[in-house]
Design goal:
Order of helices and strands: HHEEHHEHHHHEEHHHHHHH
Number of helices: 15
CATH class of the largest domain: Mainly Alpha
Distance between the termini: 84 Å
Strand order of the largest sheet: 1-2-3
Number of strands: 5
Strand content: under 5%
Radius of gyration: 23 Å
Structural class: mainly alpha
Helix content: 25-40%
Length: about 425
């Protein structure tokens, strides 16, 4: 009897291994094949002032965090930390106008296909989440901004390594996330822009800003997640904090209108302030990879809020990350502020952006204080939170002197920048 049981177990294990091997072979084939049959979409850049402005809105909130990141605004590519390390090591591409290392030699249609399908100029798939349902006008606007002559897109020779997927990563991209090899044959319209439009808010959340992907559990695409209202926007997507100098995992929060587990108690004004400043009504810091939507206008933010309020509340509680969530608590003691305002999360020794503090070296404390309160006024597109509403000028000045002390620079009054 025991021999029969062991034989049955052996056969079962063999079948599982054969199945896994077959699946891995299929996944590898899908990731490595040439997608020369995916037609180029009939989309060209929108170079109108309105189109370029809209393109910057979308690019800063969606593309910039991956292709620039780390407090930078030039999209030269680099290491990404948005996916669990178990899936592999990911690098975003250089998308400056460099003819060799960037996308300067790409046509508008090739860039559009990359956005929509994740298929590059050489007809190969790149492991990035595509935006198959982004409207033609928005895709054209993004390309218009990229080709507007903005200095951020000046040619750069930097070339990040290619992404390396682990076996689970290959399976995830090939099957769970899926590869969009459906060429766009018909124009995709953008819904009418209106603050009270659930449809426009849904479009922004699922097809542009991709809230649905990051704030819903699992590795499926946004399109698939939209088909599961029972878990949609309930949080739980896993991010790895270790590459950022943190500890453990960060799970995306629940943003359904649940009053106990989500954002059901947030007012529209509180929602807008959180999205733009990066600080919640409770004073918690919205840490990376959550972007700041500083370029989104009031109508867009109101439409997002309208859509989120239309969702069914989900009371699933998402646990906080290891070490808790940084909470903005202004204090007369700058060392405490450096920790409580979340500065230490990014700039403390051993953290991902420790070296960025050196950019303040040699500057006047008054200038650094203004940067702390309104960083976006100095560096448009930066992902630093805006502390103006929380930190007054005196506390900002004290924190600035503390930061300058950490750089080894002078903290004397009136230092020339």
């Amino acid at each position: 009897m025991m021999k029969k049981i062991l034989l049955a177990i052996g056969v079962l294990v063999a079948l599982v291994l054969i199945g896994a091997g077959t699946a891995m072979g299929v996944a590898t084939h899908k990731l490595n094949k040439t997608y020369d049959y995916v037609a180029l979409p009939n989309i060209t850049r929108d170079s109108s002032p309105e189109g370029i402005a809209r393109g910057e809105q979308v690019f800063r909130a969606v593309c910039g965090e991956c292709h620039a990141g780390g407090g930078n605004t030039k999209p030269v590519g680099g290491r990404m930390h948005d996916f669990p390390a178990e899936l592999g090591t990911f690098y975003s591409a250089n998308i400056t106008s460099d003819m060799e290392k960037g996308v300067g030699a790409w046509t508008d249609q090739e860039i559009a296909r990359m956005v929509i399908n994740g298929i590059d100029k050489s007809h190969h798939f790149r492991p990035m989440p595509p935006f198959p349902n982004m409207g033609d006008k928005d895709v054209a606007a993004v390309i218009g901004f990229m080709r507007s002559g903005h200095p951020d897109f000046a040619p750069e020779k930097q070339q990040p390594p290619r992404s390396e997927l682990t076996p689970p990563g290959r399976m995830a991209f090939a099957f769970a996330m899926g590869i969009n090899d459906k060429g766009r044959t018909e124009p995709v319209p953008v819904p009418v822009k209106a603050a009270d439009s659930v449809e426009y808010g849904r479009y922004l959340a699922s097809s542009v800003y991709d809230c649905t992907f990051c704030h819903s559990p699992g590795l499926e695409s946004s399109a698939v997640k939209m088909q599961h209202p029972e878990t949609l926007l309930s949080g739980g997507f896993e991010f790895d904090l270790v590459p950022l100098g943190g500890e453990g995992k960060l799970l995306s929060p629940n943003i359904t209108p649940s009053e106990t587990a989500g954002i059901g108690k947030w007012t529209l004004d509180e929602f807008k302030h959180s999205m733009v400043s990066g600080i919640t009504p409770g004073g918690f810091i919205l840490r990376p990879p959550m972007p700041k939507y500083r370029y989104a206008d009031d109508v867009e933010l109101a439409a997002l809020y309208t859509f989120l309020r239309s969702m069914k509340p989900n009371d699933k509680v998402v646990p906080p990350p290891t070490g808790g969530r940084p909470k903005a608590e202004p204090s007369a003691e700058p060392e405490k502020m450096f920790s409580s305002l979340g500065c230490a999360t990014c700039h403390a020794p051993g953290k991902a952006y420790e070296a960025k503090l050196q950019g303040a070296k040699g500057k006047a404390p008054e200038e650094v204080a203004k940067w702390i309160r309104n960083p976006e006024s100095f560096k448009p597109g930066t992902q630093m939170p805006t502390y103006e509403a929380l930190v007054d000028e005196n506390n900002a000045l004290a924190l600035a002197k503390y930061v300058l002390g950490r750089t080894g620079g002078s903290v004397s009054e009136g230092t020339t920048p």
